[in-house]
Design brief:
Elements (H helix, E strand, L loop, with lengths): L1 H25 L2 H13 L12 H15 L11 H7 L3
Amino acid sequence: MEKNEILQRQLKDEELKTRQREMDRHETTVSKLKLFGDALRNSVSRMSNDPVEIISFFRRVEQLYKSLDVPRASSFGQTALERESNKPG
């Protein structure tokens, strides 16, 4: 019975390690950049050649960044703790 419990504990530990590796992989800068890049690529319309529409194009892109909650470029290299400590207020 004790050997069975040890095997179950080892299996549970391996599952936890696998989950942690998967979470870490999703938290990397590269994966975040790919995620936001894909989201923006599929959401942003092409900019018109008409100079009058430039301002509205960038306003739409800015609004899209806000709605997707895209972090500022300077925060990609920071850890979550560093980002929290740099927040105003």
